[in-house]
Amino acid sequence: MKVTVDFEECLKDSPRFRTTIEEVEGDYGELESKLDKLVKLCIGMIDAGRVYNQANKQFVNGIRELALQSTRDEVIGSSLAAFAETLQEMNNYHTILFDQAQRSIKSQLQTFVKEDLKKFKDAKKQFDKVSEEKEVALVKNAQVPRNKQHEVEEATNILTTTRKCFRHIALDYVLQINVLQSKRRLEILKSMLSYMNANLTFFHQGYDFFSQLQPLMKQLSGQLDQLVVDSAKEKRDMEQKHSTIQQMDFSTEDSKLEYNVDTDNGIAMEGYLFKRASNAFKTWNRRWFSIQNSQLVYQKRFRDNPTVVVEDLRLCTVKHCEDVERRFCFEVVSPSKSWMMQADSEKLRQAWIKAVQNSIATAFRENGEEITISLDRQSSASMGSLDSGCELVKLVKGESALQRVLAITGNEFCCDCGQSDPRWASINLGITLCIECSGIHRSLGVHNSKVRSLTLDSWEPELLKLMCKLGNCVINQIYEARREEIGGKKPQPGDPRQEIEAFIRAKYVEKRFVLKPTAQEQKEKIMTFRKLDKRIKGNMDFLPPRPPPPTPKLRTASSTSASFSGQEVRRDSLFCPDELDSLFSYFDTSSKLQSLRSKDSGIQNSADGSREMLASTPSSSSLSETELQESESPMSMSQADRPTVFSELTDSSAGSLLYWASCACSLTDMVQALAHGADVNWVNGEDSNRTPLMQAVQGGSLITCEFLLQNAASVDQQDVRGRGPLHHATILGHTGQVCLFLKRGAKQNTVDADNRSPLSIAVEAANADIVTLLRLAKMSEEMRESEGALGQSGQYPHPQSHTEQQYKKCIQEFITLQLQES
């Protein structure tokens, strides 16, 4: 063993000894700090390892649960179970490894620091103390005078005793240093070697376990290669089938989506029907019906046990029902009871009736009984004949959103990169996009671009019309007007994403390629739009007068329109059949409201079957202000004689252009104004603080309103008289705009300076459509609130609740107003 400090040098107390002692003391001081740090790091590693083991254990449990859930797929289930077992064993070995680290490093090194190094430090204190005493004795002995013999003897004795004590303690100190040096080497190497052996064992065991798992992993790798090929083939097949079905003309194909026939399982027919309940309210509920085993059954959910409606169809008959307010109804009658059902179309009603008849005939034949009543005669007497046999046609109203939008010139390619067959759109810009550009548009934020799928998302009619009014060509003429002039390169399909993103940001965010008109050009355009504004100044300060009591004489506006059309005079409702469902479904919170919709749809049907757009067709019960001035209002008649007054144009900004273009319904100029930086909520201080949205209401176009709303126009901003867009739409009788604003969350309880709410305005104007719409919207909110309270309390409301009474009152007033108007 190498001796760190020599014992003879210790006895000499030479400078070499002192230097060696200082080096040893400094070395052991640094050793102590390093060992303390290593122990703390080991403790941190062990704590983190335990957290990791706990998380790993939860992860393995998740794999086990996934394996149990995938038991139907033998490959996935067995593979995941094997993986979970191996990972669990590795987790156990991790636990053992961290336990070994705690025993070998933390415990051993901590003991070495706290015991051995502490003894060394105590010995050092004694050595330092006796060294000082020896130095004092030497100095005192040297200072004693020669002539004082007793002091000389005393100093000599003290020096001798001190030297003996120093030599004894110094020898012990040197021994402690030399032993500690040897033990230091032993303890450090022993602890680290133990930890490294634990790591070696851990990795050996892991290798053994994964070696056992390797054949299974190789087998799965081979299967995955085949799965990738099969998955790609299945994806192509599904996309092809999806495209084929999407392009299918359902007007000529059998409506296979509406019903199903499974003869192998004894199902004569199955599909959705509305069933009238037998309770006091006679509510209608949509259920899945099926005819099987000579029985008519239905169920609410797939796993529910079917409820038998008719036990034996041989005892029943089926017939049309034309005496109810709902369409496409038929009744199944038994000797003791009858059941009222409703199909979605006339073709489906005929198909269900035919299926019930065939099931009745089949049941008689299977039981060997004679059919005493001719089914053909019964069919012609009670149900009428089926002209198309069992062929059903699904009535699809219009084309899909993809087909309608892509039919616009220029929309068949991505607006920004030119990729063909785009499947996404920016609804506030009115453009079509490929999937890559749509992702970039999403990153711009909804204040710049709102992205929606043309195939996966639902599209409201007003939004579809807006998309068809704009399109890639219109937008590119505005947002890329200066692109070639300044040398901007338009990206192509396949270009790097960074280049496409830089181009899109320059185009829509920085608006680098927009051509800004001169002040004179913009001023002339604004003046042109102002001249198109036919509104008499001040005519919005008065509400339409209450009409006189109903008389057999029809309104002037209706008579005028009838004389132009040459057809029978009738009352035109503002509800358009093609768009009623989309606009009205927002308020349809219960099955009770469906009967109202059916009643209202019945009023709409006319001989010619035609309707104009919701925004452009005025209601006869609520005329526009100009019509009121021309026909009924004496006050308005006096105002009509006054010419339109135009003040001097003082503002030719982009906001002013947007304001006047909205009134003129010039969608292209509105887009251009926004591209020039116009504020969509710009306020015209010279015109009663009106906004572009209020001007769009004045212009009477639903599309311009939708465009402004999609571009973040405020639906509740008020003018100087405290009237918002909902007030103005109600005053003008624009039912479509009223419905649109309600869908966008307009507050209908807001009152203007005359303390009138939109509802009170509609009541005063006797506008049955808008009154009903506003009250249904208000009732919808109350129903949602009551349903929320019901969910919290867990109690069912009384049938004659306050909301139910309001609903009945609303229906009665609606019917009364409808009769008065007709």
From TrEMBL:
A Pfam family assignment: Ank_2
InterPro entries, per database record: ACAP1/2/3-like, AH/BAR_dom_sf, Ankyrin_rpt, Ankyrin_rpt-contain_sf, ARFGAP/RecO, ArfGAP_dom, ArfGAP_dom_sf, BAR_dom
Region (Disordered): 538-565, 597-644, 784-803
Sequence ranges of Polar residues compositional bias: 597-608, 635-644, 792-803
Record field: compositional bias (Low complexity): 616-634
Record has Zinc as a keyword: yes
Arf-GAP domain: residues covered: 399-521
Keyword annotations from UniProtKB, A to Z: ANK repeat, Cell membrane, Coiled coil, Endosome, GTPase activation, Membrane, Metal-binding, Repeat, Zinc, Zinc-finger
Molecular function terms, GO-annotated: GTPase activator activity; zinc ion binding
One GO term describing the cellular component: plasma membrane
Highest taxon, organism lineage: Eukaryota
Topology of the protein relative to the lipid bilayer: Peripheral membrane protein
Compartment(s) where it occurs, according to its Swiss-Prot or TrEMBL record: Cell membrane; Endosome membrane
CDD domains membership: ArfGap_ACAP, BAR_ACAP2, PH_ACAP
Database matches in PROSITE patterns: ANK_REP_REGION, ANK_REPEAT, ARFGAP, PH_DOMAIN
Repeat (ANK) residue spans along the chain: 688-720, 721-753
Residue ranges of every copy of the PH domain listed in the record: 266-361
Regulation: GAP activity stimulated by phosphatidylinositol 4,5-bisphosphate (PIP2) and phosphatidic acid.
Segments crossing the lipid bilayer: none
PANTHER family listed in its UniProt record: ARF-GAP WITH COILED-COIL, ANK REPEAT AND PH DOMAIN-CONTAINING PROTEIN 2, CENTAURIN/ARF
Domain characteristics, as noted in the entry: The BAR domain mediates homodimerization, it can neither bind membrane nor impart curvature, but instead requires the neighboring PH domain to achieve these functions. PH domain binds phospholipids including phosphatidic acid, phosphatidylinositol 3-phosphate, phosphatidylinositol 3,5-bisphosphate (PIP2) and phosphatidylinositol 3,4,5-trisphosphate (PIP3). May mediate protein binding to PIP2 or PIP3 containing membranes.
Reported function: GTPase-activating protein for the ADP ribosylation factor family.
The name this protein goes by in its record: Arf-GAP with coiled-coil, ANK repeat and PH domain-containing protein
Organism (species): Phoxinus phoxinus (Eurasian minnow)
